[in-house]
Specification:
heterodimer; A: about 270 residues; mainly alpha; MetI-like fold; 2 domains; 14 helices; about 75% helix; B: about 290 residues; two-stranded antiparallel ribbon; about 5% strand; globular
């Protein structure tokens, strides 16, 4: 019993250490953050690194704004496309339904990494490169199969009697969606929104390919750039840690608050 | 279920946006990629038909093979660590008491942060003069001078990156294994217990066989993810030394964007997608069987 406790404690320490050390390093005063050999724990606390990050190039608000904007667009686009599609697949006698479902899941078998070059060329023609909408489209394409799968199962699980009652009451299909289906599928919708947010907020390669102008960089992009290009010449380690801390906070918060949805989504998603 | 002609029509209307989206942003790029791969094409000159020349060239391209072999090596090293490590942790924390639940939550935290961001974090930890890993190793007297972890030697870089990615994703396998282990019917493990089976026997004879499908699935997901590795190498080594640590996706990226050899990049993407397809099909077959 104690052995299990000790192993668990050791495991937790190893897993949490890198994050704690990064947060602590972000709070070191400027000189200490650039010291070699590095100190383990800050000798003084300061928000200098956050101040430098706030003012870095076009300023932190631009980059956080780009990341948040893309993530919100991704959530809206993903839900806007998959909620009606899942409804149709679960409850309407659409011809060739199975074929359509397979086509919609196409992205499952083609890695998006391979599609970025043609997508870039296509977007370049229609002014969707260096655009939050363009990047949100890439992120939605990544998330679509998972989201559709989760929602279709959830819509299919809504009891038929509930829908029958709505039909008998003379409600339209849209009213049934609004008053019967959406309230019964809230957990699935939260799961889909949660995964869309995490994917978009964290995604790197698509942003690297689509965004070439600094004013459109997302948070991971500007941080990756800052590891080599700073006003100090070398890497500004304190500022990098401040940026890492800020990138991590929303993910960890959302995970701790919505853990139940996260784990259930993962289980049904990985077993696609 | 809405019936009849009207139901069909309404259903199609609801499906149309998603269908148009997938056709435009997945199917069309896929076709475009196949077409591009048969052309010599840079952004500066118009595309010129070259047939299979791009594919031919890939097979004779040393860097293509270096990237391919390096990616396979990375995948071959990291997969067993992730699966065996994740499974051992899952066995440890599968029961639902507070200590184990907290441990599960903590081990899973790195999974939700971005791979790009975690790579930056480990880029710092492994940094030669500013990183805590070298500082700790020197303070413990394990090394005399700072180790050049990243970008100096391909194998050292590979192992450093593997360590960082294991930290980042081991919780993914763990959480799915915990789910599978908890789904083992109670009467089965109790029967084994009554028969006097030791814990070890219960694990090898009952739990592992009954969770084998999940193990296979997680292995496939891990293998596919590793074969598509990019962020961690781009950020932590930038392919150094001499592109020896450039993975397959990295090499596609280099050809398509900095070098602007779009046709060649597309041919490399096609080869990559075809390779991944084999694993995905096995994965889908496995999951399909579980539903019926």
């Amino acid at each position: 019993m104690y052995l299990v406790g000790a192993i668990c404690l050791a495991l937790c320490t190893i897993m949490i250490m890198p994050l704690v050390m990064s947060v602590l390093a972000s709070l070191k005063p400027t000189a200490e953050a650039a010291a070699t050999p590095p100190t383990y724990f800050p000798h003084g606390l300061s928000f200098d690194s956050y101040q430098r990050l706030w003012d870095y190039q076009l300023g932190l608000p631009t980059y956080v704004g780009n990341s948040l904007g893309t993530a919100l667009l991704t959530i809206l686009l993903t839900l806007g496309l998959t909620v009606p599609a899942a409804y149709a697949l679960a409850r309407f006698p659409v011809p060739f339904k199975e074929v359509i479902f397979v086509v919609l899941l196409l992205a499952l078998i083609v890695p998006y990494q391979a599609l970025l070059t043609p997508m870039f060329l296509m977007f370049a023609k229609v002014q969707l490169t260096n655009s939050l909408v363009g990047l949100a489209i890439v992120h939605t394409a990544i998330q679509l199969p998972f989201s559709l799968y989760i929602l279709r199962n959830s819509f299919a699980a809504v009891p038929l009697e509930l829908e029958e009652a709505a039909v008998v009451d003379g409600s339209s299909s849209l009213q049934a969606l609004r008053y019967v289906f959406l309230p019964s599928t809230v957990p699935a919708i939260v799961t889909v929104a949660l995964f869309a947010f995490i994917t978009s907020w964290n995604e790197f390669l698509g942003a690297l390919v689509m965004m070439s102008r600094g004013n459109r960089f997302t948070l991971p992009l500007i941080l990756a750039t800052s590891r080599t290009e700073t006003s100090l010449g070398g890497t500004d380690w304190g500022m990098l840690q401040a940026g890492i801390t800020i990138s991590i906070i929303p993910c960890v918060l959302v995970y701790l608050l919505l853990q139940r949805y996260y784990v259930s989504g993962l289980m049904s998603g990985a077993v696609k | 279920m809405r019936k009849g002609y009207r139901g069909r029509l309404v259903g199609i209307v609801y499906l149309a946006p998603a269908l148009v989206f997938v056709l435009a942003f997945t199917a069309y790029p896929l076709g475009q990629m196949a077409w591009m791969s048969l052309h010599s094409w840079s952004l500066l000159t118009p595309p010129r038909w070259v047939g299979l020349a791009n594919y031919d060239r890939a097979f004779g391209d040393t860097q293509f093979w270096v990237s391919f072999v390096f990616t396979l090596k990375y995948t071959a090293f990291i997969t067993p660590i992730l699966i065996i490590g994740g499974y051992l942790i899952a066995l440890l924390v599968a029961r639902n008491d507070p200590v184990r639940k907290v441990t599960r939550t903590v081990v899973f935290i790195p999974v939700v942060i971005g791979l790009g961001v975690s790579s930056l974090l480990w880029y710092w930890l492994f940094s030669t003069n500013f990183g805590l890993i070298n500082a700790a190793l020197m303070d413990l007297g394990l090394v005399d001078k700072p180790v050049l972890w990243l970008g100096a030697d391909a194998d050292t870089s590979n192992w450093a990156i593997i360590a960082s990615v294991v930290w980042k994703v081991i919780g993914f396998g763990m959480i799915l294994f915990v789910g599978a282990i908890q789904a083992v019917p109670n009467d089965v493990s109790e029967a084994a217990l009554v028969d006097g089976a030791s814990y070890r026997q219960r694990v090898t004879k009952v739990i592992i066989p009954l969770t084998l499908r999940t193990v296979l699935l997680v292995t496939l997901v891990s293998v596919i993810g590793s074969l598509l590795a990019f962020d961690q190498f781009y950020i932590m080594t930038a392919g150094q030394p001499q592109n020896e640590t450039a993975t397959s996706v990295f090499y596609v990226y280099l050809n398509s964007f900095p070098y602007l050899k779009l046709g060649y990049g597309a041919a490399l993407s096609m080869i990559l997608a075809a390779g991944i397809l084999i694993f995905t099909v096995v994965q889908l077959l496995l999951t399909r069987r579980s539903h019926s």
